[in-house]
Amino acid sequence: MRTLEMSVLAGTYIPPRFPCSCNSTSSVSCKSKNPATALIVPNPKKSEKVLSGSFHQTHGAQSLPPKMKRVFFLDVNPLCYEGSKPSLHSFARWLSLFLSQVSLTDPVIAVIDGERGSEYRRKLLPSYKAHRKKFTKHVSTLRKFSGGHVPRSHQVINDVLGKCNVPVIKVDGHEADDVVATLAGQVLNKGFRVVIASPDKDFKQLISEDVQMVMPLPELQRWSFYTLRHYRDQYNCDPQSDLSLRCIVGDEVDGVPGIQHLVPSFGRKTALKLIKKHGSLETLLNAAAVRTVGRPYAQDALKKYADYLRRNYEVLALKRDVNVQLYEEWLVERDNHNDTVTLSTFFRYLEESKELTHSTRPIFYNG
């Protein structure tokens, strides 16, 4: 049986349109019997339908019937950084542009990294995201809340998104990427298209005719769509090869070393050629185990470091079996009437908190 963990935030709370049985001054965090799982959305009522299913791609466009429209996933964590520095101002700026210029009234589901989300991958590879600063404890721009307690920044983020009628999903023990990959499969199974709003290249492994990305471009201060055509033009291969390719060349941003770390002559050009020929990392490794697949240095590396590459695959592959389910309420047109007031108040609050950082006067978010 699930228990509700209530956190009362300062100010007037505008109830979101996703399933909610709480009162109008509360933010609800639901924790299941499994301590590794937590959803920052209320339990659905018995009458509400729960959607589930596997990946099933369908073609669609925004002008087609509602069933064929887009559902956006907002990857919150990377938007909360200005370069490598945690920043609520960055989140506010990108959220404002996203809601006003990209998603408009299309359904939006926001996803946040769960507590201990990287733990599984770090056990496999200690260097995985080891250099990243944890945003949830970064509160330098926030001094006090209603009870005189220093809050977590995510409390403010959850409140702002809730007032903009965007459900916020957080599953403890899992990174946001895995939750998005799981829910995206369920969305596709219902006949919708998926658009993932994130700068994270890990999502490129999901791109298809029905899965796009929209990425923030800091240098231009706007969002830009990234499609299957863009991927093919950029990499000269299909997204199915993306994961296998990164397992070989590594991912410096995520702290995943490539095979060049061990075999300097084994570069991206060689890796791309082999992956394009064999289709996937596992097929390539199986072939290399029984016959020659390339030049001696590549052949020897693939045989000698097969386990190393398979570990990279397990670290970089997005999981699609997270214990999280999609609710019908998340797929309806988003009510955006509160956006302007909510975001204006949020920006004003951030400016006031910045000005009063060294003041003893309490700062409240009254959005």
Automatic annotation (TrEMBL):
Show the SUPFAM superfamilies listed in the entry. Answer: 5' to 3' exonuclease, C-terminal subdomain, PIN domain-like
- CDD domains, A to Z: H3TH_53EXO, PIN_53EXO
Q: Which organism is it from?
A: Abrus precatorius (Indian licorice)
Using the record's annotation, list all stretches that form the 5'-3' exonuclease domain: 69-334
Q: What is this protein called?
A: Uncharacterized protein LOC113858849 isoform X1
The residue range of the signal peptide is: none
Superkingdom of the source? Eukaryota
Entry-linked InterPro entries? 5-3_exonucl_a-hlix_arch_N, 5-3_exonuclease, 5-3_exonuclease_C_sf, DNA_polI_H3TH, FEN, PIN-like_dom_sf
GO terms for molecular function, please?
5'-3' exonuclease activity; 5'-flap endonuclease activity; DNA binding
| Keyword RNA-binding on entry | no
State the UniProt keywords alphabetically: Hydrolase, Nuclease
Q: Name one GO biological process term.
A: DNA replication, Okazaki fragment processing
Question: Pfam families from the xrefs?
Answer: 5_3_exonuc (PF01367), 5_3_exonuc_N (PF02739)
